[in-house]
Design a protein that fits this description.
Elements (H helix, E strand, L loop, with lengths): L6 H45 L3 E5 L5 E4 L1 H7 L3 H4 L4 H4 L1 E3 L8 H4 L9 E4 L5 E12 L5 E10 L1 H15 L9 H18 L3 E9 L1 H8 L1 H17 L6 E6 L2 E7 L3 H17 L1 E4 L2 E4 L1 E9 L6 H17 L5 E4 L29
Parallel strand pairs: 12-13
Antiparallel strand pairs: 1-2, 1-6, 3-4, 4-5, 5-6, 7-9, 7-12, 8-9, 10-11
Helix pairs in contact: 8-9
Length: about 350
Amino acid sequence: MRMATSPSRVQTGESGLEEKIGQLTAALDEAREELRACQESHDRNLSALCAIADGIAIVDNKGCITCLNPVASHLTGWKEDASLGRNLLKVVKFTDHQGRAVDILSEGFSTEQDDIVSLTRRDGHVILVDGTVAQVHDRDHNAIGAVVTFRNVTAATKLTRELAYHANHDSLTGLHNRRAFKAKLQRAITNAAEFGSGNAMLYIDLDQFKAVNDKGGHFAGDELLRQLAVLLRRQLREHDTVARLGGDEFAVLLENCTTAHAAAVAEKIRSAIVDFVFAWNDTVFKVGCSVGQLDFDDDRRSAQEIIGIADRMCYLAKTGGRNQVAFYGAQESGAAPSEHDVSHRPGARRDEGELLA
């Protein structure tokens, strides 16, 4: 016998179904809202990633690229879709100043200003870059990859190096200037005090240089100085320092050398300048030089004092007949010769703070 279904039970079943559907609909709406929020967050983060002025490469634990922002694509020459899944070192090729490959993920970027990393683009073009490497962790603090941030510093680096060069070199001859020479001399003094190494300074003043300016003009004098700068450099070892102190005066720093070697170099320089023939238009000029030599193997004298003594020895060589070397030994005691007033000479006794470019 078939029993009739109670209307109340049917209504209860329909009500429960409607409630269930309502719950599912609410859950679906909530999921859609979460998805929409996630999509907005993703789009916002992607827009921010694209807006960053630095190149950004995100890699997984295997060093494979999972994201490359537009700036990184521009700097490397790789499109993001072509780089995904590739090892970072195959896409972003970093090298040091010696051309050796740099594993940025393990070595990071150098903190030395003069050791900027190079980046070789896909087309072979090389730019200078700087940047950082940061590890990425999940909520449980497990490493899941890294973010490599890098920027093009080619123009800034070249400008910095150019400014540093001009701050330490003579604009006419390309030799070190007085400022750079004093800095190198001070380091040599410090090393002499620590290791007892022998050093020498040569102060060189040209003879008959005024005749070149008077007869050939200042352009001729400038060209003579440029050629003599090359000549001086050829007489020295690789690590020796030659500088133009101003006018027609030069200085040479010989580090880790004996007195005999310094004397030989001084004579070599004197002889080379005497034998040098300078032709300008239809006129041939010959000049000489007077050289003052001072040896030192300790820090008893400051850089300024050493320059002053060598300058005075140069003056003695000039007043004693020119075209010769006047020597003041490292072991000599007492004050340096000072009875001759050399303040009238160009470059003599300059203020320590004066910088000649």
